[in-house]
Amino acid sequence: MIPIAAVHSFRRGTGKSNLTAGLAACLALSGRRVGVVDAHLQAPGMQILLGLADKRIDYSLNDYLWGECELHEAAYDLSGRLGLPEGGPRDGRLFLIPASPETGDIVRMLGRPIDFDRLNRGVQRLPEELGLEAVLIDTPAGLNEDTLSTLAAANSLVLVTRPEQHDYQGTAVIVEVARHLHTPRLFLVLNGAAPELDAEYARQRLLEAYECQGAAVLPHCDELAALGSSRPFPPAYPDHPLTARIQGLAEELLMINDIY
Amino acid sequence: MAITSQTPTKRMSFSLRWKLLIGFSLVFTVVFAVAYYWFYTFSTQMALGRIQEDLADTLNAAIDGIDGDVFEALVKSGAPEDQAVPAGDPRYQEHQTWMEIVHKIEPRAVTYSYVKDPTGERVLWVGDLYRITAPEESTAFLEPYTPSKDFIFQGLEEVTVDMKPYPDDWGSWVSAYGPIRNSRGEPVGAVGIDFQADYVVQVQKAIRDSMVMSFFVTYGSLLVLVYIISSVLTKPLVSLAQIAKKIGEGEYNQDLSGLTRGRLKDEISDLAGDFAEMAGKVYQREQTLRRQVEELRIEVDESKRKHQVSEIVDTDFFRELQSKADEMRIRRSKAGTSA
């Protein structure tokens, strides 16, 4: 089973998109073929992070949802931006299925819920079509019909939270909802933790509190803030401890067994 | 928040101070005793030395003034039967007079003369100053005497000196003996001088008295000094101990400036500086830990959660989504097993 992970959070500004980009970069740089789906239809951002110029975008996720193309046709190979060599079946690859940054397309999506069946089918077929070993879906924050549909299409949920009480409460709600959806795997990510925090202690606390399959603690770091969501963190700082943590989470994501 | 310095009544300061005081007392006493002993011995030797010189001079003078041949003849004529001394014999009178003259010139000297008793280990008194100056103590002419020490016998052959002070009711004495020789150079008797050595005793007593006085004065003042110094040294230690206790109880905001500033840079000020640094670091660590525990206090309001979850899952939309998702998974797993 190929991991299809929805990267989600209760609140906005938890560093979700940066994490998605970071996970994708780690997987690609370690020789895996990974696809990223930007489900942020209202405010697309992955194309900026992963380096896809607006004018290059022909087909997008929007077009697929409207039935105007196949999902893989809206995929763009952005491996070159990570410095990955072309060709070679053993080489890592990074594909992005962007959400359309066109204002007109965004407006067209407003008020119309995502067709779950269509989304689901597309996402499930994507690994086959592109030979992917993992799919990451950058999901907008908060629970609504669209994000619920996205979560339902995934077999893994990566929930990102800040170290704040309000976040913890909201995250607990999403965890419970995901259980109702029978999402097989749940990962908790504590983002923006104090650097001197005892990571192991924090991990244990998260595992206990949310009863999830895995947890990661990502410390706040100035370098990440300085990057300003212009590109993924790991390739820029390959030896940074934060990169190691993201790498660890990426590896955990891959370890999915057929559990049915 | 400054620490007011308290009188060090703490156990720690006491035992350290007591150690200092006792140690000092022991060392001082030993050193002083050694010095005193040395000084006492040295002074005694010096005093005796002076006396010995005078004694030797007196003895030599006394011997020179005696005609050996006359002495020999006097002794040979023997003791009179009817009186203690041969008072009428001019040779005897002259001899006695000479005894007295020596004494008059040197009042510290008690002069006498004697010969060896041919029959045994005794001497026979010949001349004796006491017959003139202290008749009740005096001896008879040729009265025998058995000496306890050998010096008297030695004196019959060569000049001998016994410088070990011998105390009796009349004082402390040292003695010297020397042979009287006749014109042929043969020893025919000896002169003995008992010399007053009270001077020695006086010197010794003077030293003893002043020693006692100076011991207590020196000891007393040094003791006070040690007490003050130990107080000065242990006060900062007591302060630090109190500060350490306060820090242990969580009061990190301690003012150590009293120990670091206004003090020449020494080990104590270094220690205080290190202490302040340590307190700061402990405080930081505690703050960090507090923050951590606080940040990870994941308290979920269960009833609130239940409510919010049911708002979502108890909807037609969700139930439909749920069944579609389940269906999809079942289909996929079937497809997976059959593939």
Order of helices and strands of chain B: HHHEEHEHEEEHHHHH
Helix tally of chain B equals: 10
Low-confidence stretches of chain A: none
Helical amount among residues of chain A, as a percent range? 40-55%
N- to C-terminal separation of chain A? 10 Å
Give Rg of chain A in angstroms.
17 Å
Count of alpha and pi helical runs of chain A: 11
Greatest interface and its participating residue counts: A-B, 36 and 29 residues
Strand portion of chain A: 15-25%
Structural class, from secondary structure content of chain B?
Answer: alpha+beta
Element-level helix/strand string of chain A: EHEHHEEHHEHEHEHEHHH
Mean pLDDT of chain B: 86
Write down the Rg of chain B: 52 Å
User: In angstroms, what separates the terminal alpha carbons of chain B?
Assistant: 78 Å
Entry summary:
The complex is a heterodimer of chains A (260) and B (339). Chain A is an alpha/beta fold. Chain A contains 11 helices and 8 strands.
What does this 3D model show about the protein?
The complex is a heterodimer of chains A (260) and B (339). Chain A is α/β, with parallel strands linked by helices and 260 residues long. Chain A contains eleven helices and eight strands. Helices cover 41% and strands 17% of the residues of chain A. Chain A has an eight-stranded mixed sheet, with helices on both faces. The longest helix of chain A is centred in the middle third of the chain and has 16 residues, at 165-180. Chain B has helices at 11-64, 68-76, 90-105, 130-133, 151-154, 198-248, 257-260, 267-295, 302-313, 316-338, and strands spanning 109-116, 123-128, 144-145, 160-168, 171-181, 187-196. Chain B has a six-stranded antiparallel sheet. In chain B, α6 runs parallel beside α8 (267-295). The relative contact order of chain B is 0.11. The interface between A and B is medium-sized, with 36 and 29 residues.
